[in-house]
Amino acid sequence: MFKNGLSYAGSILLMLIAHAAMLGIVLVRGSYTTPMDLVPLVLAVLGLDLAGIIAAALYRQMTYTLDIMLLTILGMSLIYQSCFGGIGLSLKHLITCIAALVACEIGFLLTRNHEWIRRHKPWIYGIIGVLVLAILFLTGGRSMWINIGSFSLQPSEFIKPCYILICAASIVELHKKIKILFFYVSVDTLCLCGATVLIFGLQWWCRDLGSLPTFAAIFGCALVCRLCYPRAKINKPAIAAMCIGGGMLAMAAWTLAPAYVQDRLHVDIWADQYGSGYQQCQALIGIARGGWLGAGPGQGYLHNVFAHESDIVFSTISEEWGLLYAGLTVVILLIMLTTTLMNPPKNYYHAMMAAGVTAAFLAQMALNIFGSCNLIPFTGVTLPFISMGGSSMMTCGFLVGMLKAAQSPLFHHEIKMGRKKTTRKTERRAQA
């Protein structure tokens, strides 16, 4: 049972031990009045684990590794968010964790059938168009947020999985070309390039440049997969021209960046500790204050700083739990992304989809962590599954579902069997 890795029961046991160890740290080092204050948090974490295990068991798939990894990181995230500024269950974050689990299963069921995605690709383009229009007309200005009372929604987050899907579904069709005037072009290539320009232009217009690297990483993966596709016929001069063009675009973006971006790129945070550099200064001080083992759950200061639960969540965890736990959280996220190497995708569509999801996660993690450590300016990008935020949590859950689908795809014979069953049911109903 253990020759090729841990058993399913062994993986669940490790997850429960990890969560129990964290709850034990909260009990020993946490800031609370009575031990009864911990009961809601304990019940929420164990209930989330049980619900996730039951949900994963309902679907037939080739591996359950991602399910256990997702439950592990969600339980850790719930404990983190419930300890910032004092021990108490974060009901809002619990709801978003449940939403992430639901989104994961939806993403798994919707994206494992590559033929279904290809047939409905126009609908995916339509969804992107609707989301773009919602951002332009419902946000009340050059913003990415739709505010409805105390509820807020970020439609741009939902563009990420749609963009990955059209990139993945377009790979195989790229060699199908038609002649326009004197050139042979791929319709899918034109549509994909148009969607890319639209998304990048929207990010620039709404001044949400922090998300641009994420979409750029997805596009880069799609381009590499396009060049590596067996039927692709692109010569070396074309590849060199693409590289030069990409470099020129990057230089132009750096030079033509808005004034507020230039200020962030060149600001000396220590010379302006109580102005534009306040957030990053406090983030660095929090990491130093926490050291390796942390000040204790609920005993930090960063919960008084704006966006402590989202933009600088890595620093907040480092302060209260220590750099060791913060680093362990990052390692678990990285292991989750490498599960596709243990059980690689079986076709090019799922390979591209897994590569796009991995690129999106890595870009977001790098932007959040490096921003917290002052290696790059703050971008406002969330740390997947750890930062507070409903739109981000649901999107990340859907993306993990896409990773699951890449490891448990729906093969051609399964699709044919499904069609036959549907036909038989239709015939029986007609006879009845």
**General shape:** globular
Q: What is the succession of H and E elements?
A: HHHHHHEEHEEHHHHHHHHHHH
Number of strands: 4
Q: What is the CA-CA span between the terminal residues?
A: 49 Å
Question: Largest sheet, if any?
Answer: 2 strands, antiparallel
Class of secondary structure makeup: mainly alpha
Could you tell me the radius of gyration in angstroms? 23 Å
Report on the structure:
This protein has 432 residues and is mainly alpha-helical. It has one domain. The protein contains 18 helices and 4 strands. The protein has helices at 8-29, 39-57, 65-81, 91-111, 114-119, 121-138, 155-170, 187-205, 212-228, 236-255, 259-266, 278-290, 313-321, 323-337, 339-342, 348-372, 390-407, 412-431; strands spanning 146-148, 151-153, 177-180, 183-186. A two-stranded antiparallel ribbon has the order 1-2. A hairpin with a 2-residue loop joins strand 3 and strand 4 (183-186). Helix 1 packs parallel to helix 3 and helix 16 (348-372) packs antiparallel against helix 17 (390-407). The protein is globular, with a radius of gyration of 23 Å. The mean pLDDT is 83.
